[in-house]
Amino acid sequence: MTEARSDVSDSSDLLASVLKEQRTLRTPVALFSEEHESKSVRQRFSHLIPLSKPGPGEQYAFEVNLDACTGCKACVAACHSLNGLDEDESWRDVGALVGTRKQPYLQTVTSACHHCADPACSNGCPVLAYEKDEATGIVRHLDDQCIGCSYCILKCPYDVPKFNVKRGIVRKCDMCHGRLAAGEAPACVQSCPNEAIKIRVVSKSSETITSTGMLPCVFPSDYTQPTTRYVSAKPLPTNAQPADASRLMLDEGHEPLAWMLVLTQMSAGAFVACAAALWSHALDLKLAGFASAAALFTGVVGILLSVLHLGQPLKAWRAFLGWRKSWLSREIIAFGGFAGAGMSTIAAWCMSDMGAMRLTLTAAALAGLAAVACSVMVYVDTRKQLWSLANVSGKFLGTTLLLGAALCATVWEWSGAAVATWAIGFTLAIRWALSAWELAGFRNALEDENSAWHRSARILHERLRGQMDARAFLLVATGLVIPTLIAAGASSRWMLAASLALTFWSQLIERRYFFTAAAGSKMPGN
Amino acid sequence: MTFREWDGPLTADLVREPAKFGLGQVPSRLAPDATTKAICGYCSTGCGLKLHLKDGEAINVTPDPDYPVNIGTTCPKGWEALTALDAPDRATTPLLHGEAVDWDTALKYFCGKMRGIIEKHGSEAAAFISTGQMMLEEMAYLGALAKFGMGLIHGDGNTRQCMATAVTAYKESFGFDAPPFTYADFEESDVLVFIGANPCIAHPIMWQRVLRNKRKPEVIVVDPRTTETAMSATQHYAIKPKSDLTLLYGLAYLLARDGGIDHDFVKANTTGYDAFASFVSSFTPMRVCAETGLSTEQLAHFAQTIRDGTPRVSFWWTMGVNQGHQATRTAQAIINLALMTGNIGKPGTGANSITGQCNAMGSRLFSNTTNLLGGHDFRNAAHREKVGAATGIPVERIPSRPSLAYDQIIDAADAGTVKALWFIATNPSHSWIDQSRFNRVLDKLDFLVVQDIYCSTETAKRAHLVLPAAGWGEKEGCFINSERRIGYSPKVRRAPGQALADFHIFRLIAHYWSCEDLFREWTSPEAVFRVLQRCTADQPCDLTGIEGYEEIGRCGGIQWPAAKMTNEEWRMTNERRLFEDGKFFTPDKRAKFVFDEPQAAPEQRCEEFPLILITGRGTSAQWHTETRTGKSAVLAKMAPEELLLDLHAEDAARFGIRDGTSVRVISKRAQLTATARVTTCVSPGEVFLPMHDNQVNQLTHSAFDPHSRQPAYKHSAVRLEKV
To answer: In angstroms, what CA-CA distances link A452 with A216, A388, A419, A467?
Structure first.
């Protein structure tokens, strides 16, 4: 120990000496530092990890003894510290299961990545930034491959991958693969005071995985085949619920995606409307050209906006890599084709070739529909309950037809085409039909507690009421007030332009809550 | 350009590599070049931490696998021990009326103002409030400086809020403030009875020791709430709030009636048993069940379990008992159970108070507030002589009057007799009971000084003068944990700006006050430790045999007593309990049965306020007023984002409150808004709020145990309104 001088009498000397002392750190030797612990990490935790590597058809998996997990959350902190993660980052989380009035129950639950046998994150990744390790079964994320599209976040039913804003990529648990390879236990396993977390070797066969181990209240295991096993000497009550089950949380908004979806659907719809009008001989080349240009412009803006969604846009060129499994890859390819077809309509227009126009417009319409279908599948493939095939295709196709018709109606009205009248009528009809369908679905889901998307309906009702009200107002404005004003003799050109803008706005609101009210599944929280 | 990037800068961010020092793999950018050991500065468990050093500065923390307390694990607070030091709101310079000033100005102002008040209004007009969060050398310096140097009479500590009850109970029953246990007792018991304690959340590393018990013990939890610990227990008794004293007397009745008494032990080693036995004869099962809400079968089973487990029954209590309106008698009722069954002084036994703060136990012996240094009595002339000789302080400088207790100091400030208060490392503007009244009193003061590592605490924001302190890890010294283990913690970080170790601040004040001659020997923490060792000579907490910091570090901490003797048996083992010879610290060497008729809690339910509000710890990631844990983003993740009110489903239905909706919680004193969490973990008629939110103590009813003067946080009447 260094002792401060005791003979300092002058205040400024004393002050200077204590300030200096405060800034001085001693050498490790003076701190009684020790070279080694009595036992190495390898020795201390050998009983918590398998003695041998997984064999063929096997992989590593977490095993959590619920009877020993009492909610201290040391695993969450250790994962953060021992892996050098960012300030608020940890790949483990602790929540709780609770019982009911008749059957009280409280059980804390630690969870990390389940290193699924059929990982949805990996299957959905457009750039193959996930690798399920052949030998260990660990689902690894390739941080430098990731483009930060967040699709894996939407795909994982356990809410495991997390977006890292600072780096623009997703990061997730790698089961401390390097530690395991060196015979050391993962950080969380090392940290649990009660040895509640272990690593086990399990069979990768889907029957074994889906029939054992997962908690009763989480997403069914048959989708991704999560390998984590929760064990307990006491049977879990079947009606146990996550402690945060009734808390209505908003999901991530994905603003660029909302814009992209609405704009590209408007674009596809406009091409469809144009092609239909052309085949009905209701358009000449010039009018078709105008409308195609408007449609193409909208579509290209939509596609470009989607890039804003990426954390690593410069790496996005790899997005085709995942086409074998990823609907997002397919959607990106489809939109590439759609943009190409759209541009060819402009070429046909410039060449003043009606035959080519007919052909290219038809191609653009079909490519547009195919791309919208891919968009539908991107969301359906996440298996979120709000995003059922019927729901998503109804919303996306409805938007396609509604905004496509509205755009064409406006363009044609401004260019003085008679077919505009048809488009106006079609827009109105679909506006009301789509709204009626949406509203009926919402009412049903809100009233029926067993409805698949009851939770989403409650979020809309209780947390997003303002957005619902705004859409109701916009419906009355575009479906009733504007048509009445036009009938009363107001300038239909301006009225239609206004109607298009308001309808677009309404669909944009819908698309925002398509994301925020998705009520994605996750592991139990607090 | 490749199709798949397996490596690159983003991948490199997370690369781990083998470290030396037996640490296994660590993140490459946090690879240490040396390690050293410290004691965690949060709770009294006193976990050993291994600090990873780079160029002498700590960059990461892992639990110490060789420390006998925690055996290689620690709770999230320990893992995040360093994070709190990097916060942007650290106090980096003295603040006078909110303006940054240099130390010279601050210290001259401090001394001038304090002296002025004392000269004008007398030495009782200024007081200090110490803490269980500093090193014991610092708290001793503070207490000695304030009382011997500056001549103050009154000084107390924030330990009044957590441990005063255990102190008072032990002193009266055992003759000294002597928690008898060692953590090995968790592993040695056949029956563990936890009363008003939730170790799963509040002391997770002690719970680790319970789960390491290989004897398949019965674990009994007495708690109105179904806590994590209650869920893990084999028996849970959800008694009505504050009916614990009645329950304990009822158990004593059944044990006496059914032959559960160790008559030999009682006869040889205790006094007052007969009076106690006749006192509890009125605590019949019928009465006890009516008052506690238990069934007679439950009560009988509880008593039977104790009988069956004897002589390996240990009793453990913490804030549920300590923070009650009759807390001391309740703690003593627990002590009585251990005494009458002979469950004391043997492996797996004891009436054991689990302490709160990291150095509450150090404060109990060395803060020089309630007790004179070393567990002595200010009123005792021989004690004053002894401490004077041991410290070199002229005996006439040692006051012969004890201090007012914390609540009495606040009352005196309210009445205007105390004009200046100096708070060190505590945040009572958040944590004191009936907070609004407390803050009104602070606003009356002529001079309010706050010495803290943050300038942003609720209390610091009200201060006239803020003195910036170095935190844990930026200074060295010793802590004493719950099991009386003295541990050493080193300095491994530079404090920001002009912040100084509390030790240095006290040295400077002594200099500016011109009383530094009194403290000529008090030049470094270790020098002070030697002075304090001398003060403990021949006390139950004798530390004279300890060689110094190096030995403390080398031995994995040393439990007191550690006297200088020829055969220093205490060096043979690192897990020691007290009273193995049946001899206590009272003058007649016998433990005393102390008891009193139970009283109803002062604030009861009524028509207007039909619910009882219980407060307590929220999660293991939160510490008290969260001045430190609130700085860690990863700890913040572990706690609910909003203030949650736990409410039973029956009451939720009764008041029409749905889970997740906003409710107003209203007491006679204040109201706040919280989110309802409908649960079965509280009983109907009771609600729970975590103490960490800075509004919760606006609701609490100000009541105090008459013996320990500890605030009774756990029983306030409230009502709920939908927002």
So the answer is: 17, 9, 42, 22
**Lookup result for tokens 């909302």:** A258
State the SS3 of B11-39: HHCCCEEECCCCCCEEEHHHCCCEEEEEE
Please give the C-alpha separations between residue B198 and each of A127, A146, B27, B229, B626, in angstroms, as whole numbers. 48, 44, 34, 5, 19
Instruction: Give the pLDDT score at B21.
Output: 83
Q: What is the DSSP letter of B163?
A: T
- Measured CA distances, B346 to B93, B314, B563 (Å): 52, 10, 21
- Residue ranges per structural domain of chain A: 44-242, 255-516
Q: CB-based contact (8 Å) between A146 and chain B? A: yes
**pLDDT (tens digit per residue) in B598-655:** 999 999 999 999 999 999 999 999 999 999 999 999 999 999 989 999 999 999 999 9
| Tens digits of residue pLDDT in B24-34 | 999 999 999 99
- Domain around B678: 611-722
DSSP per position, B360-421 = HHHHHHHSSSSSBTTTB-TT-HHHHHHHHHHHT--GGGS-SSPPPPHHHHHHHHHHTS--EE
What is the C-alpha separation between B495 and B91, in angstroms, rounded?
10
> Which amino acid, residue B1?
M
- Of the partner residues B8, B34, B232, the one whose CB lies closest to the CB of residue A28: B34
Euclidean distance between CA atoms B185 and B346, whole angstroms: 9
Closest residue, chain A, to B641 (C-alpha): A526
- Mutation choice for A interface testing from B3, B7, B10, B110 by most A CBs within 10 A: B10
Distances (CA, A) of B720 to A189, A496, B266, B390, B587: 43, 53, 49, 57, 52
Q: Does the beta-carbon distance from B527 to A11 stay under 8 Å?
A: no
Do residues B718 and B673 share a domain? Answer: yes
Rounded Cα distance between B204 and B304, Å, is: 28
Q: What is the CATH number of the domain that holds B21?
A: 2.20.25.90
Tens digits of residue pLDDT in A4-56: 334 445 888 999 999 999 999 887 666 666 656 678 888 899 999 998 999 99
Torsion of CA A449, A452, A454, A456, to 10 degrees: 170
Q: Which CATH class is domain A44-242?
A: alpha beta
Structure-token pair, residue B626: 């969260």
Separation in Å, CA A228 to CA A56, A111, A207 = 19, 8, 14
Nearest CA to B480 among B122, B159, B193?
A: B159
Task: For B203-223, give the DSSP string.
Answer: -HHHHHHHHT-TT--EEEEE-
A101 in reach of chain B (CB within 8 A): yes
Tokens of B9: 């800068």
The CA distance from B555 to B575, in Å, is: 11
Q: Which B-chain residues 416-475 have CB contacts (< 8 A) with chain A?
A: 470, 474
Claim to verify: residue B109 and residue B137 sit in the same structural domain: yes
Q: Which of residues 19-48 of A touch B (CB under 8 A)?
A: 19, 21-23, 25-28, 31-42, 44
3-class secondary structure, A201: strand
> Residue A14 and residue B554: Cβ atoms within 8 Å?
no
Interchain proximity A73–B620, CB inside 8 Å: yes
B34-60 residue pLDDT tens: 999 999 999 999 999 999 999 999 999
Residues 243-302 of A with CB under 8 A from B: 243, 246-248
Provide the ipTM: 0.94
Domain A255-516 has CATH 3.40.50.1240: no
CA dist., res. A526 & res. B637, Å (int): 11
What CATH number should be reported for the domain holding residue B99?
A: 3.40.50.740
The residue type of B690 is P
pTM to 2 decimal places: 0.94
